Amino acid sequence: MCSGDHDMTIPYIGTHEWIESLNLTIKYDWEPWFVDGQVAGYAKLYADNVQDYITYDLTFATVKGGGHTAPEYRPEQCFAMMDRWFDYYPL
């Protein structure tokens, strides 16, 4: 999931609260992710732990300076994020 951090239509904090309601374990707390050496946003990794076995994980990422349609505001950063997702490469 991703949200622009300047989205006033559906603020990222609402998405964050919904994810928190899933009661997943936080694997990595907010960490910056980069494009061309610049902070492109922040990401938080959640995992579902069943007896120390991860059945799935979920990454929530913000796009720095992104509005409601983040790719319109920050196309390079959004492309890099999706490219990494398709390549199974972490942010």
From TrEMBL:
Keywords: Carboxypeptidase, Glycoprotein, Hydrolase, Protease. GO terms for molecular function: serine-type carboxypeptidase activity. GO terms for biological process: proteolysis. This is Uncharacterized protein. Pfam families: Peptidase_S10. It comes from Populus trichocarpa. The keyword tRNA processing does not apply. Belongs to the peptidase S10 family. Gene3D superfamilies: 3.40.50.11320.
